[in-house]
Design a protein that fits this description.
GO terms for molecular function: alpha-glucosidase activity. The protein has 5 helices and 7 strands. The protein is an alpha+beta fold. It has one domain: TIM Barrel (Alpha-Beta Barrel). It is elongated and about 50 Å long.
Length: 147
């Protein structure tokens, strides 16, 4: 889950960062624009409550498969979604991160959907902010992910 630390792999993220800092090195983590659809996960819950995900053609929140399993995709055409997602980069919101976390690799901003066998991306008829279809905004998605 992005903007979190896997407690099985990183049981002491602050200690890890302190060890890295003691060697005069920095840490880079990775995130993707798909968010694990898991109630109780703060990023998912916050985006869902604020209506910040891409919608299916029927108006429901789009869900598909990607690295964390069932996921929803941030609707970066929506300025509120960009603000919300951008706020996750802060040390305050990325809990247990420190200034040793010097960078975040923004990966897979195509966006990739593993269970769309034809194109491996959001369906062309999925709906973004303002009623814009993915067919119209697809090539802007990656740019808006990092704007």
């Amino acid at each position: 889950k992005y903007f979190t630390w896997n407690s099985n792999t990183f049981s002491d993220p602050i200690g890890l960062q302190e060890t890295i800092a003691s060697t005069n090195r920095k840490l880079v983590t990775i995130i993707d624009p798909h968010i694990k659809a898991e109630p109780g996960y703060n990023v998912y819950d916050g985006a869902l409550a604020a209506d910040l995900f891409v919608k299916s053609a029927d108006g429901s929140v789009f869900q598909g498969s990607c690295w964390p399993g069932t996921s929803s995709w941030m609707d970066f055409l929506n300025p509120a979604a960009r603000d919300f997602y951008g706020s996750m980069y802060s040390y305050e919101n990325f809990v247990n991160s420190t200034p040793t976390l010097a960078g975040i690799w923004n990966d897979m901003n195509e966006p990739s959907v593993f269970d769309n066998s034809l194109e491996n991306t959001l369906p062309a008829d999925s709906i973004h902010f303002g009623g814009v279809t993915n067919r119209e905004i697809h090539n802007m998605y990656g740019y808006l992910h990092v704007k």
